[in-house]
Amino acid sequence: MSEKEAENILLELKEKAELMVDLAYSSVIYDNKKLAEEVYELENFVDGLNENLQKLAVSDAVAGELDVNEVVAVLKLGAFSEAIADAAREIADVELRDVELHPIIRESVMESEEVLVRVRVTEQSPLAGRTLGDMRLASETGMWVIAIKRGNRWMYDPDKHVEIKANDVLFVRGAKEGMEHFIALAKGEEKEI
User: pLDDT tens for residues 94-106?
Assistant: First the structure.
């Protein structure tokens, strides 16, 4: 395993774990089973990614390409990311089991000015076929895309050059006021950004 390969796997583990925590809390707070299901799907992926990392690290240690301390560091970082992913799954499980939140938690959520939304882009959407930079979504809607799921592929913190495509699932965060407009844009119900 090259240093770059290990770095890429660890970065992907970190990004997926961070996204899972966001999605898990949002699933519970906003009573959204789809977000919770995404967490479960991501957790399975993280399991596989961590297992690949472990195999590569041990293989490289046997081949003499990594010393013991390097292997231990890689394995620990992978295990910590896995623990975060497992914790996110447990949080999402609260939503999937329909555990009722305490009224104080619900009330505090209602006071929150920020939301996280999952929405699929339709073919009729004015977002489809355009780059994030062209649309200036954050300034126009108050919502910014934090991740895109395209088939089984995930893109985190997409930059302005990423083109949105029909059937992309967007995970966006931003002001409550922009949520309905953004969802309508993604579904093609509104045409003006």
Answer: 999 988 877 887 6
